[in-house]
Amino acid sequence: MGMIAYPDARATPLPDTGLSVGPLRIPGRAFLAPMSGVTDLGVRRLACRFGASLVVSEMIGSDFLARGDLESKLKAEGSGIGLHVVQIAGRDPLAMAEAARIAEDCGAAMIDINMGCPARKVTGGLAGAQLMRDLPRATALVRATIGAVRVPVTLKMRLGWDETSQNAPELARIAEAEGIAMLTVHGRTRCQFYEGRASWDAIGVVKRAVSLPVVANGDCTSLADAAMMLARSGADAVMIGRAAVGRPWLVGDIAHFLATGVARAEPSLAARKDAALEHYETLLETYGVAHGLRHARKHLAAYAQGLGGSVHPLVRQRLVTSEDPRIVKATLAAIFETDVLREAA
């Protein structure tokens, strides 16, 4: 399927309100977060075309990428994306260095190190947010990754492991001294997972500890959230995660608002339908039908949820359970087109 143009995505050229990361210029201040199993190539392409300032691949295990795992290479794919950012995770400096080199060879313009993932399967392997409990190892990983590539290396972290060990400012200063080009801080500890509210004020403590660009992440769901997040944290940009699932245009909406102070119109139903269909076809092309269907289900459910209660439960069930791509595409198109088909199976 060819690329679709969205004439309402960038009505007018935006003023340059972005930031510099090493030699790179980021054109705005709203980024799509790396989300495992979510920020595949299709959704990143769409977010870019709807005006996201920066998009980041889903987290890729450095061990898997270093040994040539096919699915990991597919996750690192960045064709059709202007500024390609690959996020890697791990605990072995040699594997992190090799994974970074592979990502750079695949066209990555920036490498992001994950030290914020709270998932037990990641922290249990002494990676992700677990590294905030082992700053010497975290330092070694940063040093090895930066030494392996020519492109800027950035770092994503949480506030700390728990409320008694919020050491993000300390890790931020170490990262800056080692040559990290930008920091992203999720405003929760690892032990909070995604519960409670992210602390944008605590992100501000990290921002004041360094001179690097800092990106605030956690609970940004609207234009108003983004403005308040920047005001309270003093951060240079915002990163949007779960709120953008099923709404790949949201990050661009926020980028536009932060640059102009004006909210743009939401994409038409026709543009949203085209986006959803393109995303689905990209998943099938990237992973093949069997794996593509599995990857697509969470996205299909999110696109349907975005239409509110107008999609009949039986139609939604057909959308996410059918193993026939023709039925899925017909159902996906129908839910954006007619109330009649949304109301009856």
Order of strands, main sheet, comes to 3-4-6-7-8-9-10-11
Radius of gyration: 20 Å
Q: Uncertain runs with pLDDT below 50, 5 residues or more?
A: 1-11, 340-345
Globally, the shape reads globular
Strand content: 5-15%
Rounded mean pLDDT is: 93
Q: Count every beta strand, where a strand is a DSSP E run of 2 or more residues.
A: 11
**What is the end-to-end distance?**
28 Å
CATH-derived architecture of the largest domain: Alpha-Beta Barrel
Order of helices and strands: EEEHEEHHEHEHHEHEHEHEHHHHH
CATH fold descriptor of the largest domain: TIM Barrel
CATH class category name of the largest domain: Alpha Beta
Number of domains: 2
The helix content is 40-55%
| SSE class | alpha/beta
Superfamily (CATH H level) name of the largest domain: Aldolase class I
Sketch the major β-sheet. Answer: 8 strands, parallel, barrel
Number of helices: 14
Layout of secondary structure:
Elements: E1 19-21, E2 24-26, E3 30-32, H1 41-49, E4 54-56, E5 60-61, H2 62-66, H3 70-75, E6 84-89, H4 93-105, E7 110-115, H5 120-123, H6 135-148, E8 153-157, H7 168-178, E9 183-186, H8 200-209, E10 214-217, H9 223-233, E11 237-240, H10 250-260, H11 269-305, H12 313-321, H13 325-335, H14 339-343
Parallel strand pairs: 3-4, 3-11, 4-6, 5-6, 6-7, 7-8, 8-9, 9-10, 10-11
Antiparallel strand pairs: 1-2
Helix pairs in contact: 1-11, 4-6, 6-7, 7-8, 8-9, 11-12, 11-13, 12-13
